[in-house]
Amino acid sequence: MEYLINLVGNYSIGWGITIIAALVFLVLCYRKVESYFSDKAIHEKEKNEQFKKVMDQVKNGEKEYHLIEIMACRRGCIMGGGQPTRAGDRTKSLRAKGLYNADNTTIIKKSDENPLVQELYAGLLKGKEHELLHNESYE
To answer: Would the pTM of this model clear 0.90, i.e. be above it?
Structure first.
């Protein structure tokens, strides 16, 4: 014990506990970050494989599409493909602000998980989805 005291000097036990707690915290943070980036890398690889599969099907004539939209924007497209109208920079900026605000404050994040949307598709829109919701492309 005396050897240990001489080794670390006059530091208190509280100081030692603080150092140990800090090291444990750093190890846990490292594991969390490592897990996040590992999961993200796996997800990106899966997306790339899906993209390659679709492109190969198009090249081989197995599939034919009028439009293939690839989500390249980090948080999705704002006034990009699939939007009903074109817009200028001011409108895009306001739409982005509104979307980010809605995303931060809403509980339901996906429209297909929204009970109101599910009810709408099961009732009023049943069998008419394509006719009522399909947009023509811009020339």
So the answer is: no
